[in-house]
Model the fold of this input.
Amino acid sequence: MPTNFFIFFWLLCKSFFQNHYYNKKTSISFLLKRRDVIYCMKKIKIFLFLNLCVLFYNATAQNLPYADYKRFHFGFSLGLNFLDFNVTPSKIAIDGKTYEADVSSIMPGFSVALISDLRLNDYFNLRLNPALHFGDRTLSYLNPTDGERFRTSVKSAIITIPLYIKYSAFRIHDYKPYLIAGGGVAFDCYRDKRMPVVLNMFDYFVDFGAGCTIYFPFFRFAPELRFAIGFNNLLEPLEKRGIEYQDPDMKRYNHSLSKLTSQMFILTFNFE
Done:
């Protein structure tokens, strides 16, 4: 608006002096004439009116104004995940020693998902987001008596099939915050029985979080943060593996644990 004002002011002055100042039949007293004042005021009013219209349009114009009224729409998401465990130690003595265990290191993993969305009303949507998560975490063990320490890596390639309810707030220009919650089932496709800790394939979980939809001219972008909690005991007992995988050295890794349940933080970037 400042640039428009200076341009208009320069044009106004130029027009004014061309029409009056260079007229040989007038003198400097024309500045005080009523008709000249009225002439200037009319141009100023028109200029102000036009600029107010532009400002009002810029303040109210929205990208994709009708996108939220579609019955169905689809998209995809890319993001990061941080896999974790809730560890319950067994406190069982193994060769006369007991070990405490916990997750000591969480490495960021990669997530990719498809988005399918069903509009229920102005505030609620039903979403089905099948996803694939690659991740890794490190279990560390400690014997408090003699300070013995050892660790192992637990990798996962998890397919999740969650169903969500999404509650969206009122849209403010090109921003629309929302809450999301739901649950589903998970299948861990990475199962290397040669590893000290092997996870069961099946899990079920609840998932909740929040995000904000940002409207661009051709698509919607939504950063979203969620937290998932699993309920199934993922620890596969050593005895359930084949005899060829029952290495005596693995007992301290496996028998030191009573229960492992999954936890996952997910930061995704949705494109719809």
